[in-house]
Amino acid sequence: MNQNTLYIKNRLSLRKPQEEALNILADITALLPLTKQNDVEKEIAAIREKHPTFKEFERNFPNICFALATGVGKTRLMGAFVTYLYKTYHITDFFVLAPNLTIYNKLIADFSKPTSPKYVFKGIADFVINPPLVITGDNYREMSENQLYQESIRINVFNISKINTGERKGELPLIKRLSEYLGQSYFDYLANRERLVLLMDESHHYRAERAMQVINELNPVLGIEVTATPQVQKGSKAVPFKNVVYEYSLARAIQDGFVKKPYVATRKNFNPKDYTPEEIDRMKVMDGIRVHQNTRLELEKFARNHNLPIVKPFVLIVTKDTEHAGKIKAMIQQEDFYGGHYKDKVLEIHSAQKGTEREENIAQLLSLENPLNKIEIVIHVNMLKEGWDVTNLYTIVPLRASASETLTEQTIGRGLRLPYGRIMHDEAVDRLAIVAHDKFNALIEEANRPGSIIKKEHIIELSDEDLNAPQKEIIEGKTVLVSVPTKMAEQSAVPAWEPPTETAKSTVRLLQNTVLPEMGKEVKTLGELNSWEAQQIAKEKLKKHLEATSLYAADQIAEIDSHFSEIVDQYAKGIIPIPRLVVQPGRDGHLQFEDFELDTTNLTYTEPDQDILLKSLADGGVSLVQGQVSGQITEEKPENVLLGALCDVPEIAYDDYADLLYQWAHTAVEKMRTYMDEQKVRNTVIAYRKQIAEFIFAQMKQHSHYVQPDFAAAEVHPFEKIYPHNFEKVKQDKIYNYMDTIEPKNSIPSKVFTGFKKALHDIYKFDSDTEKTFAAILEQDITVNKWLRPADRQFDIYWNNGADKYVPDFVVETAQGLFLVELKRADQLPTTEVQEKAKAAQKWVQAVNAVLAKNNEKLWTYLLIPHTEVALNKDFAYFERFKN
């Protein structure tokens, strides 16, 4: 990685495969002259030596292909390529080729609109002051001569039809016709540019003879192809590209978490022979909608619990022809299809549509990610193969057999992109469901076939119970502050002031739910809220909030002003002061290595001769044992070559162990010197440096111990907002009192409970009968003032080296102190996960108490309680013995 690739990687936040591809481009361009005078055979040999998948350019100019799975980010990679070639070689002329109108319009937006979230140069300083001039197939005739010859970068974006339309009829395309102000055609202008670089998106479309000829005529110094499908179909045979220098398959993308995980959905014991084709169609669409409904619910719940935008999913139904599409749409619009719920939420799109209908449908299609778009079902016939990039497709119902492996990948590829840009480790959020009852076995066989586009398929089996499961809804577990101050009167002998009007009630809610929680940044303790200075700040904040939505802010504040102190006091008494503090790892956890004598008994490498190809029988993967290294021999000491390889091991901090690393490298080299001369030793170390470094590191790990990360506390605020919950509930089910006996007990997690007097939310769910019992103990114990089950956003406590968040089961306040409480099955207490979470919670407690002690506030304690100890006959004081 050189300075420019490192800069681009960081500024564009490249994913691992994008970074790898950029590094390969850097390596290859260093081998090429990047001029129109080429020694083709020499250049092919140089590239082939480094990249065994590469055989030839396949065009009249240096031309390489990067094959990346759909959803990994090919367009952003093209932006990285352009940036690198500009920064490294000051190449200013680029021609980006699109296969169809959809991709053409998308590329124009992605290359030219800095405000777009998909802008490919976001963060590149060179293009902020002097942005690229984007010339398109629609505006190139409007460009002035000055614009076309200026020093700044020019990116031409054209659809393939713009450069070859008309030639079959003997007519010249417009781009090849004479331009008076240029004195030549625009096509000739491009072909005569000294260093034109051609980028071909979805390049498998440009392999026909005429397309190849037109592209060759552009005469670029370099061609770069990007595609998810590095092959062309000739009859029944798939012919792979010969110029692939980097391949990142769908199987790897799924494994690495850059796309959704495909699942196949079917019914248990389904036999297609028992049904007519029409009955199978209806069953698959019905079941697809059931999967969709469940997905929509899970996505909403996830978004609310993680304070993220809600994703509106949709279903894609693939039909065999336009007549079939029409029948499916008519079926969905019937009253007996989910009560007619989807009659105005279905969109049919296919190539037979014309004029206004087609334009309106395409507009609907392109805005499917917008929550205001009501479409939830899209029916298509052969129109949505490529260039249609959406992140909210979660269910695919194919009602036609895939014609080829390419179509299978392209159809599935429409739903692979992730809505939040990364795997969220939530099955519903990260899953693409393919409903394929009649093709279930065929898809499983294809997935398990060696070389399959999907290495491993996950399966959802829809049982009869699933299909007839009751509908669910999301309900909010509100904080009791919503009904304050009247609710707070129960805790006071003096009746609380009742706001006399709806406007006053609204103002009090705004004050107590939004403004006062923000005051944690302004005061050192919760008690300071009652000071005159703090209340003046609160009034100013309230005024600003009101003025944003009301013309009568002053009047609204005046209506509650005489009771302002009382309202603030009721708020302070009605919450548990949970500090806002982020416990963050200071220095990362790391391995600490000890001195030892390297055991070289099995270090027996000899000078390599021929390459050895190793092919896995399990997954078809190929690896290479390197052969001749004559082109790589240097005069560098073998020890230094090994040091460089050891420095590439991420767990090794070179500066901390420089002397030891050299000692171990020298020991390894000395062993080889006992049976080889110096030149052979050098050749062997160069060829096997990575393997020898791994050999050394394996022994280093045996003489090391892991140092836990230390922690640093961020800014501490004495209290913050009590966040609401969002719970899933069966619509037909009631809300239970927490004292109700629930049978069977394993159904408790699906129930919602209420009736609490001391809790800071009006409803809760419990993961077990143990948690439900513990809540009853808290309610009946007179020493417990308040308690809550925290929402996911309530705490910022991280464990697993800062990778995962921990949320305790309960928060409890008594007259003496504050408690984080975790209930765990007794047999799980010794597990690594439980103990690591407990350590993180203790770090939080220590950091918080260090601040609270200075202000003479109540201190926090962490309790880790085995489930066997929880019983109704115990009080809370009993559990304080389980301080962790």
Key words describing this protein structure:
884 residues, alpha/beta, 7-stranded parallel β-sheet, 27 helices, 18% strand
Structural account:
The protein has 884 residues and is an alpha/beta fold. Helix content is 36%, strand content 18%. It has 27 helices and 34 strands. The strands form 10 sheets. Strands 3-4-2-7-8-1-11 form a 7-stranded parallel sheet. Strands 14-15-13-16-17-12-18 form a 7-stranded parallel sheet, with helices on both faces. Strand 22 (612-615) and strand 23 (622-625) form a beta hairpin. Helix 18 packs across helix 20. 35% of the residues are buried.
Structure in a nutshell:
With 884 residues, the protein is of the alpha/beta class.
